[in-house]
Amino acid sequence: ILKSNAEHVFWFRVLDALFNFLLVWYYCTLTIRESILISNGSRIKGWWVFHHYVSTFLSGVMLTWPDGALYQMFRNQFLSYNLYQSFVQFLQYYYQSGCLYRLRALGERHNMDLTVEGFQSWMWRGLSFLLPFLFFGHFWQLYNSITLFKMFQLPECKEWQVLMCGCSYMVLFMGNLYTTLRVVYQKYMNNQDKSKLL
After folding, report:
1. Which of 55, 109, 156, 164 could make an S-S bridge to 113, C-beta 3.0–4.6 Å?
2. How far is it between the farthest Cα atoms of the chain?
3. Which of 174, 172, 87 is nearest to 133 (CA)?
């Protein structure tokens, strides 16, 4: 039984390492793609580029975090957060592709457009559906950060990865929350200005 338990833990750790490596690869490809898009004239907000650099760093730190009691304490929370984040990314993709489809159907966008520039009043409905999921994810990042900071204060904490991950999640939380609030405010004000003109 002891041997099968050790094999079980070994394979979980291998799968965790593979997952974290895939996250590093994913965020690296995003940063490369965004750099190409920016050099071709795209107006990607600076925070999102920085966000992907921080996420690459965070995934790399998670990849190097050795297996132990603290890693196991945080593992389920980390995997649950990533599962939720994948769900939110699917919702964002669905919202973005729906907006692009509608704009293409109205003849306001070219078939090769990848993102939506500008904002129209009908987009509020989809965005208002998406915002609670985004904010929940942002506050989950804060929760991850607080959890890791508390773990760092434990006397048995010897891994530097705990503090680095906690700091990374805090940076992600603050940047995501600020940027999301700023974008929503700007879109709201632009929508108000357009409605006054009509």
Report:
1. 109
2. 74
3. 87
- DSSP assignment letter at 178: H
Q: Give the integer Cα–Cα distance in Å for 50 and 124.
A: 26
Name the strand (E) or helix (H) holding 182: helix 160-197
Q: Do residues 156 and 70 make contact, with C-beta atoms less than 8 angstroms apart?
A: yes
Residues near 79 by beta carbon (within 8 Å), at least 6 away in sequence: 19
* 82-112: pLDDT as tens digits: 999 999 999 988 887 777 766 666 665 555 4
Query: At 118, which helix (H) or strand (E)?
Result: none
From residue 65, give the alpha-carbon distance in Å to each of 20, 156, 162, 164, 190.
Answer: 10, 15, 8, 10, 45
CA 9 to CA 3: how far, in whole Å?
Answer: 10
What is the pLDDT, as a whole number, of residue 28? 94
CB 169 within 8 A of CB 138: no
* Domains of the chain by residue range: 2-197
pTM (2 d.p.): 0.83
Closest by CA position to 65, among listed 132, 135, 144, 161: 161
143 pLDDT higher than 80: yes
Give Cβ neighbours of residue 151 (< 8 Å, ≥ 6 apart): 70, 73, 74, 157, 162, 166
